[in-house]
Amino acid sequence: MIISHVDQDHIGGILTILEELQVGEAIIAKQYESSENYEKFLKIVKEKNIKVRVVKKGDVIKFDNLSEFDVIWPEKDLIKENSINNNAIVGKLKYKDFSCLFTGDIEKIAEEKIIQEKSNIRSTVLKVAHHGSKTSSTDEFLDLVQPKMALIGVGKKNLFGHPSEETIEKLENRKVKVYRTDLDGEIKIKVFNKNLTITHF
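Given the sequence above, the corresponding structure tokens read:
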């Protein structure tokens, strides 16, 4: 199980899964500072004897001979500003010609550092950062990813007003097909050889 970061809306359900189901390995990034959720995580994995792997930029998680998850962020030197969000795991899932970039809740400062590192982030699908917030998805970042599709995980009528109209406009201007959980429900991507199908319900 890969844990992007320890914000409640990202790790809350995962903690329950770790408690109730059999998990062989939990993958997480180094934390800039401790938090209540992180302490809960440490308690559960210790009690359940779950292996923990701490990853950083350059690490590769192999699933099989055809698929892997390349860790693009965070680096060894973590970001101090809004540290939980900006040090979230960013990774590129690759299978043959298909790729999906997962971005957690990173914001502009993390996107800029990823760009500076000249990381290969071009991907078929982009999981849009921070629920489509205007604090993420800079033009430079989107221009490097060049996604054909974008996924936005966001609750209906959420208090933060996500996703922002600015982010949606940036994606639409690039002719990116956008799927949102508030409008489309659960989104499922199936990749078989060179065929890609998306269903939502």
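The first strand starts at residue 25 and ends at 29. Try to locate this feature in the token string yourself.
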